Structures are given as C-alpha cells and as structure tokens.
Amino acid sequence: MEFLKTSPGDNFLEHALALEYIKAGNDAGARQIFETILQRDPGYTGSYYHLGKLLERIGEKKLAIDWYEKGMAAAKAAGDNHALGELRAAHEELSDW
Cβ neighbours of residue 88 under 8 Å, at least 6 residues apart? Predict the structure, then answer.
C-alpha cells in the first residue's frame, strides 16, 4: 500500500494489490481494481486473465467470456503472444460449459 501512495495509478502495483485481495478472500475489492486498471489502460493485458478467472469463480461465466475476448483483442494488438495464449485457453475452456 505504501508504494501506491507514492505511485498512484501504477498498473503493476495495483494489479499486485488485486492479487493480494484475492488471496485474502476479497474478490469484490480485487474485481474493482482489475476493472479500474482495464478501464484506464485497456492494453494492460495481464489483468484480463485474472479478472476472467475471478468472474468464473463467482459464477459470472458470460462476463468472464466477454473479458477474455477483450483481453485476446488487446493481447493481439500488443503482440503479446503469451497473454493471448493464456486468454485463448481460458476462453476455450469456459466456452465448452
């Protein structure tokens, strides 16, 4: 939290905080952070996967698919093949339900 005080709006730090929220069982707080990051910076590809997984876990499967699709588009635009592969795999797995 101290780092965020000196670097507010830092995607990496906020993403890390959201992951800590998940570990602590605060899915609502994590979701809000991931959504804020992606609204502010749609090119921050790492948050799409984690937001999608969180949404899957809380039963929001359609919304998770939507975020995976947005993430795949962002990863493709950024040339981030690693993120694209992870998002595609998550999307395909969820689309089979």
Answer: 68, 72
Yes or no: say if 37 and 30 are a contact pair by the CB < 8 Å rule: no
**What is the band of 51 on the pLDDT scale with cuts at 50, 70, 90?**
very high
Walk me through the domains of the chain, giving residue ranges and CATH numbers.
2-95 (1.25.40.10)
The one-letter amino acid at 41: D
Which residues, 6 or more positions from 51, have their beta carbon under 8 angstroms from its beta carbon? 31, 34, 35, 38, 64, 67
Is pTM, for the whole model, over 0.85?
yes
Contact 45, 79 (CB under 8 A): no
CA dihedral angle for residue 27, residue 35, residue 20, residue 92, rounded to 10 degrees: 80
Q: Which residue has the tokens 């999307």?
A: 91
| pLDDT for res 71 | 98
Structure tokens at 13: 């730090």
